[in-house]
TrEMBL record:
Family per record: Belongs to the thioredoxin family.
Gene3D superfamilies membership: Glutaredoxin
CDD domains the UniProt entry points to: TRX_family
UniProt name for this protein: Thioredoxin
Transport listed as a keyword: yes
Gene Ontology MF terms: protein-disulfide reductase activity; transferase activity
Keyword terms of this UniProt record: Disulfide bond, Electron transport, Redox-active center, Transferase, Transport
Source domain of life: Bacteria
Database matches in Pfam families: Thioredoxin (PF00085)
PROSITE patterns with a match to the protein in the record: THIOREDOXIN_1 (PS00194), THIOREDOXIN_2 (PS51352)
Residue numbers marked as site, Contributes to redox potential value: 30-31
Disulfide bond sites: 29-32
Electron transport listed as a keyword: yes
Length: 123
């Protein structure tokens, strides 16, 4: 599956279901250029996962929303819940391991922890 361009307009719809990996990048970023083929290869190997890319130059508000201060940054969602966020380019084996780990998450536990965290933030 090809990657999707993620924007503020299609963000919520894109991340609401399934597993979604988001690559925050910029054209001038050398580590981003090195990570891009790894991300693209994984997108071909995992058609069940949505692979999305955010051009931080074009989508500055979306990058700010995530607090992205270093690129590349990889964010992962499962069933509408953010489950991973890390700056830095991953090696191919590490990305494959991450995809596997996300697929094995006990989403009942994740949902419960997410709801508890939201309640604590709201005070």
């Amino acid at each position: 599956m090809a990657t999707t361009t993620l924007t503020t307009e299609n963000h919520d719809e894109t991340v609401k279901d399934g597993t979604v990996l988001i690559d925050f990048w910029a054209g001038w970023c050398v580590p981003c250029q090195r990570f891009a083929p790894i991300f693209d290869k994984a997108s071909e190997a995992h058609p069940e996962v949505t692979f999305a890319k955010v051009d931080t130059e074009d989508q500055q508000l979306l990058a700010q929303r995530y607090g992205v201060t270093s690129i590349p940054t990889l964010v992962a969602y499962r069933d509408g819940i953010p489950v991973f966020s890390q700056p830095g380019a991953l090696r191919e084996a590490d990305l494959e391991d991450l995809i596997s780990q996300i697929g094995k998450l006990d989403m009942d536990e994740v949902r419960a922890a997410y709801e508890k965290a939201k309640e604590q933030q709201q005070g």
